[in-house]
Amino acid sequence: MANNKRQLFLKRRLRVRNKIKAMANGRARLSVHRSSKNISVQLIDDVNGVTLAAASTLEKGLGFVGKNNVEAATKVGATIAERAKKAGVEECYFDRGGFLFHGKIKALADAAREGGLKF
Questions:
Q1: Position 9 pLDDT exceeds 90
Q2: What is the strand order of the sheet 28-34 is part of?
Q3: Rounded average pLDDT over 11-21
Q4: For the CA atoms of the chain, what is the radius of gyration?
């Protein structure tokens, strides 16, 4: 059975999310979304269903509106780490969704780790 690109992405996303939820133990989830023009990240508390912190290239303060490159991902990662500290979160799980862990996603994760988040 041939699967198209979107179906494979959705299967990967569900596989990653189910593994994270199985071992969450009340820890927050750092969810990443990447489009062709922007990249955004949210720190989500799945127990209460609340977003604790968020960062995106759509924010004018970051200066990367409409850009989706490694440099923008690094800045978003550092910003989410700073906002997570303000929210009182030090540990979380990294939910890459259906995106592969390289390039922009890896740059975002590395910047968040350097900023003090543990995952």
A1: yes
A2: 50-56, 39-45, 28-34, 92-95
A3: 91
A4: 14
